[in-house]
Design a protein that fits this description.
The chain is an alpha+beta fold and 80 residues long. It has one domain. The chain is built from 1 helix and 4 strands; from the N terminus they run αββββ. The strands form 2 sheets. It has a two-stranded antiparallel ribbon with strand order 1-2. Strand 3 and strand 4 form a beta hairpin. It is globular, with a radius of gyration of 15 Å. The two termini are 14 Å apart.
Length: 80
C-alpha cells in the first residue's frame, strides 16, 4: 500500500514547547478529534475509540562519523 503524507511539520523546539504541544494533543485525542496546523496547512482528524498505540525509541549510528542520533516516536494507528 503506497504511503500518502497528509500533514507533516518538523522544527526545533524546546523541551517545554514540546511538552506543551503533547499535552494539548493528548487532550484532543481524549476528546476524539485532533487539529493539526502549521504555516497555513491545517487539517482535523478523528481518532477512533481504540486505535493501536506504539512507542518506539531508536538509536541510529552514522557509519562514517560514528555519531549517534536518537528518535523517540509516539504513533497512533487505525484502519477504516
Amino acid at each position: 500500500m503506497p504511503e500518502e503524507v497528509l500533514f507533516k511539520t518538523e522544527e526545533p523546539r524546546s523541551r517545554a514547547e514540546i511538552a506543551e504541544t503533547l499535552v494539548a494533543a493528548a487532550e484532543e485525542i481524549e476528546a476524539g478529534t485532533v487539529h493539526l496546523d502549521a504555516d497555513g496547512d491545517a487539517t482535523d482528524v478523528e481518532i477512533p475509540d481504540t486505535p493501536l498505540f506504539e512507542v518506539e525509541l531508536e538509536r541510529l549510528t552514522d557509519s562514517e562519523t560514528g555519531e549517534e542520533r536518537y528518535e523517540l516516536e509516539y504513533e497512533i494507528r487505525w484502519t477504516r
